[in-house]
Amino acid sequence: MRVIAVPVKSLERAKGRLAAVLEPLERAALTLAMLEDVLDACLAVPGWQTWVVSPDEAVLEVSARRRARPIAEEDPGLLAAIRQVEEEAAGADVLAVVLGDLPLLTAPALELALHTLGPVVAVPSDSDRGTNVLLRRPPSVIPARFGTDSYRRHREAAEVLGVPFSSVEAPEMAFDLDRPADILRLLDEGGRGRTRATCLEMGLAERLSVRAE
Fold first, then answer.
1. pTM above 0.85, yes or no
2. Which 3-state string (H, E, C) describes 33-45?
3. Going by C-beta distance under 8 Å and a sequence separation of 6 or more, which residues neighbour residue 91?
4. Of 10, 91, 104, 151, which residue has the fewest beta carbons closer than 10 angstroms?
5. Domains of the chain, with CATH numbers?
């Protein structure tokens, strides 16, 4: 069994760094749009199951509608959600964790990471050197560590255990949307994703430009 797990926070807590520029309902809409973009990529990869773990009913409903497997998060926190998925995926040959805020993610870019050989494959974030994608064969080969500088910690954990570590760098996977500047970058780079369309519908280009002046 090969599983792609997408953890998503509750819509009330998602994208807190954008609270200064977006209302709660706008942050929720943006989070759901990014989830749809990520699911577009994940569900297009053949031979993999896509699971979404979240405490939020709306997130789970969207996931079920898209024919991903919804998993209700039992304990709060990203690492707790990943541990829950690891337990659910006991016996899986490989587990890939893909964060839910990668609006530029494409199926070809994701396949590049999934098809990279080695027991540990990681994709660093270009904002805080966190980890946007972590693939482990088997899932227990090293512990998952997310957040700022987690890419380095994954690499060091593999080195300590003598496990080969592979890095994949691709702009489609390295970009995660957390800050107002990320919204402007997304709008500048173009594309047709749901996240960009949602930002345009909310008039964020004009709103953020005015705020910056």
1. yes
2. HHHHHHHHHHHCC
3. 1
4. 91
5. 2-212 (3.90.550.10)
